[in-house]
Write a structure and sequence with these properties.
Shape: elongated
Distance between the termini: 41 Å
Radius of gyration: 35 Å
Number of domains: 2
Number of helices: 21
Oligomer: single chain
Helix content: 55-70%
Structural class: alpha/beta
Strand content: 5-15%
Largest sheet: 6 strands, mixed
CATH topology of the largest domain: ABC transporter transmembrane region fold
Length: 591
Amino acid sequence: MSRNPQAKGKLSLKEGSSLHAFQKVMKFIGRYRVHLVFSILLAAVSVVLQLYIPILFGDAIDGIVDKGQVDFELVAYYLSRILVLVLVSAAATWVMSVINNRMTYRVVQDIREKAIRHIQKLPLSYLDGHSTGDIVSRVIADVALLSDGLLLGFTQLFSGVITIGVTLAFMLSKSLIITGLVILLTPLSFVVARFIATRSFRMFHKQSETRGRQTAIIEEMIGNQKVVKAFGYEEKASARFAEVNEELKECSQKAVFYSSLTNPCTRFVNNVIYAAVALAGALLILAGNLTVGGLSVLLAYANQYMKPFNDISSVITELQNALACASRIFELLEEPAESPDPAEALSQVQGAVEVQDVSFSYDKKKKLIEHFSLKTKPGMRVAIVGPTGCGKTTFINLLMRFYDVDGGRILVDGQPIQQVSRHSLRRNYGMVLQDTWIKNGTVRENVCFGKPDATEEEIKKACVEAHSWEFIRRLPKGLDTVLNEDSLSQGQKQLLCITRVMLCLPPMLILDEATSSIDTRTELQIQEGFEKLMQGRTSFIVAHRLSTIRNADVILVMKDGRIVEQGNHQELMAAGGFYSHLYNSQFDRVS
């Protein structure tokens, strides 16, 4: 969840108006100007032809009334022209719909691609501060709803605007008085629609936010179902979901209620306009200034003129929902990305790492690491130990530049890491964490994640050294077996992660509880592989089992973000300080 949700909400309401969101969507639509122009031209053709049809009907009616008889040749003439116009108009409408579909889905594709690229550039502080489910909901569900709204919007907007303009032009050719009356009464529809739409947008924005929280809960509970069941959390999980679900129901009902008022209200105003046209037209007929056929044309045009307002109001729910979703998408896209990467790359690394008076904290109100200093030589093994929460993993995050330091600096081979690209820095580290990650793909793809061009011989050698070959060769298709998140045990996943590093052979290593999920026998075997791997490589080892880091060149003992002791195992044990207490506590018998 956000570290400051209230501030985030204020930002959304201030900048997240429907017009503001629409303007941002139009920037994406602007890339497809050719599609847009063709769609507008086809809409114009379709509308003009449809609006010309009432004139033909009016002429036919006037012919019958004036002559007092049915002129079948005249009727047939007008009907044939009407038929041709209907067919051409239908074809133009169909082609316009195809273009609108293509344009809509390309816009949606662009937004999703930009969102994914932007997520890759966001600092980890943003990803740590927002639930995965909410981010997924923005990229998938919100963009899908935006596409539905755009499709409806394109269809109604282009045709509607052209219909209004062309209808007024045709009405002016028939009666200036009635046209003026229609224009005078039209703002009533806009006032009513805007009043309701503003309120429905707020409800739809809240609905979209609540849907994101609901997705986050579902993702959390399904992804950790074993833990939920093990601790009997089912009822509390259901209660949490029910609470959010109830909130979603309430804001959805309010949103739909407000938006549903638009249609009947605008229809009421439109019926008032239609009645005014009929009354004014009847008076003009009595005065001899208008024919019955002319009145039928004006009434038809009054309907055509009001149709866009009715159509837009009928889909106002989808449109407001789409724009509310768009505002959430653009909130994500407008989040500040990581600071730009320098062009300079870190190459031919020897492994000399120096930490100079570094201070850092996730929450600036709570101090974590303060005035941390360290200097290592190439090939040195540095173990980092200390109680939970003392800053061990945070230090690793700073080495990899997942987070930037608040004060001080970190250097690799004398180069400050802020002055080289993140990719070149991270490429020189091999990292094995206690939290494993396996992508949906083959074993080969997972092993070669950091070295896609590895040969078959190199892959098998790395698997043997990491002791993962034993279980890989027993899989149905060996290295070509397709894996998902549940295909392997936690220990097997960790072995694959170790294999990745064994294959890459980077100049520096970070092992953060790298064998925490592996049995003792296999761990001893892997330690032999690590011994070979660490030879000549600067290594940073985080371990709770202190017996595994006895051979480290230097052991940093951390407490409350500071190094309280430093030395090798023998020196620290002889000192009888905090490290000695931690080491001996592993063997204390619980009475």
